[in-house]
Amino acid sequence: MKSAGEIRVWDLFVRVFHWLLVLGFFTAYLVEDEMLGLHVWSGYLVFGLALLRIVWGLVGSTHARFGDFVYGPSKVARYAKQVITFSAPRHIGHNPAGGAMIVLLLMNLILISLSGMVLYGAETQAGLLGGIAEALGVAGERGAEALEEMHEFFANLTLLLVVIHVSGVLFESLLHGENLVRAMFTGRKRS
Amino acid sequence: MADQRKGAVVTMVLIAALLAGIGVWQFGGLGLGGGEEHESEGEHEYEERYMQRGETVMPTDDSSVMLERIAAEENARIVEAEREREHGRDVYELKLAGPDGRVRELKVDAGSGEVIDRD
């Protein structure tokens, strides 16, 4: 199946992680608390995936590692400038801006998951963090309300980031004449 | 390699700081206890929160008495009550926690207290 001139870039874990994350995030985002059970389990999925991705960022294959795609701030800024002037160089793995986006998204998702679990705990004294919510003293109306605001705010922020992420992917695809969305399915890119 | 690693750590710290900054800016402190100022985002949807002091409900609010009665009939405690306009009808969406800790939703007519929908 491997055509000439193509190389494996995204390993199986990265690809499955990516699309499960899309599924989990949007399921949770769209059903909100209309179907709380589904929402909560989607949230657990997102949280678990984010944690596994961090582990994989340390021990995974070449382009899955943080060391491969997290660059210093000056490099990220320089790359962003190059993007604006249509002169951004092609990267086999994640480019510096994409890498920063991954870190930003992962942190956001963990924040949303944790606030969601504490919120669920505060409202129902159930779930993984029910006891912690009580210990933090956020159980009851006031705390739950503030947490809910935070949970929603960061979820909306993540949606915005996803829009930027997809825009970046499409832009880079056009710039370098390759289909990066396809690459996230097949794992392969032109060498 | 060491430089790259250092830069990566700086980027991660900056991003974390950015998020923390956004959190503080939006919610003040750690987002706990600061919810009051950010009450509503939707204009047609506003939340009516319960002023519960222990077991007693503020007696001045007719609708909260009504909702408490409904909760009592359902053998559950109110977790959240939202007033919404749905198809031109004012309804309360109640989140109720039963004795087993499970949360259910109940929709009641804001005027009559009639139960419209339960999940």
Features:
heterodimer, A: 191 residues, Fumarate Reductase Cytochrome B subunit, two-stranded antiparallel ribbon, 8 helices, B: alpha+beta, Nuclear Transport Factor 2, Chain: A, 5-stranded antiparallel sheet, 32% helix
Structure in words:
The complex is a heterodimer of chains A (191) and B (119). Chain A has 191 residues and is mainly α. Chain A has eight helices and two strands. In chain A, strands 1-2 form a two-stranded antiparallel sheet. The longest helix of chain A has 36 residues, at 141-176. The two termini of chain A are 16 Å apart. The model of chain A has no long low-confidence stretch (mean pLDDT 88). With 119 residues, chain B is an alpha+beta fold. In chain B, the strands form two sheets. Chain B has a five-stranded antiparallel sheet with strand order 1-4-5-6-7, with helices on one face. The model of chain B is unreliable at 30-60 (pLDDT under 50). The interface between A and B is large, with 39 and 38 residues.
**Could you say what the CATH architecture of chain A is?**
Up-down Bundle
Write down the CATH class of the largest domain in chain B.
Alpha Beta
Distance between the termini of chain A: 16 Å
Question: What is the tally of beta strands of chain A?
Answer: 2
- Cα radius of gyration of chain B in angstroms: 21 Å
What proportion of the residues of chain A is helical, as a percent range? over 70%
Largest sheet of chain A: 2 strands, antiparallel
Q: Strand count, sense and closure of the main sheet of chain B? A: 5 strands, antiparallel
CATH architecture assignment name of the largest domain in chain B = Roll
